[in-house]
Design a protein that fits this description.
Strands 3-1-2-4-5 form a 5-stranded mixed β-sheet. It starts with 5 loop residues before the first strand and ends in a 5-residue tail after the last strand. The radius of gyration is 17 Å and the shape is elongated. It has about 140 residues and is α+β, with helices and mostly antiparallel strands. The chain has one domain: Tetrahydropterin Synthase, Chain A. It has helices at about 30-35, 65-80, 100-115; strands at about 5-20, 40-55, 85, 120-125, 130-135. The protein contains 3 helices and 5 strands; from the N terminus they run E-H-E-H-E-H-E-E. A hairpin with a 2-residue loop joins strand 4 and strand 5 (about 130-135). The site of nickel (II) ion has 4 residues, from strand 2.
Length: about 140
């Protein structure tokens, strides 16, 4: 055990991506009734807040090397989703690319790199009026 103070630290990222809402198992009419205009491909400028937590390293004064966090999220998430068609990504095969499912996909991409003990929350903003938080399957 350690007496080091603990904290959470959040870094913000941005990516632009296209999607449409469509359930393959539903006929066109059902999709259009439920999702309306969201069945038409369109884009969003997403904001992604990745929060890690843990003891503050007494030497660096940080929960995580912020340059390392930036590199990991950049390579793992931003490079993959920026200017991408989310419906074409294997992560969304059989999963509607809603903000909820994007948050889960981001979590699933990051947890092997950051560790479940360090990754605390993924917050995905579709626009300034809508965000989703995900804290893993056990939260
Ligand atoms: Ni949309």
């Amino acid at each position: 055990m350690t007496d080091e103070p603990r904290a959470s630290s959040t870094r913000r990222f941005a990516f632009s991506a296209a999607h449409r809402y469509w359930v393959d198992e539903w006929p066109r009419g059902e999709n259009e009734r439920f999702f309306g205009r969201l069945t038409v491909p369109h884009g969003h400028n997403y904001t992604l807040d990745v929060t890690v937590r843990g003891p503050i390293d007494p030497q660096t004064g940080m929960v995580i090397d912020l340059a390392e966090l930036k590199r990991i999220v950049g390579e793992t998430v931003v490079d993959r989703f920026d200017h991408a068609d989310l419906n074409a990504d294997a992560l969304f095969r059989g999963r509607v690319p809603t903000t909820e499912n994007i948050a889960i996909a981001v979590w699933d991409l990051l947890v092997p790199k950051l560790g479940a003990d360090r990754l605390w929350q993924v917050r995905v903003w579709e626009d300034p009026t809508l965000f989703v938080d995900y804290r893993g399957p056990d939260a």
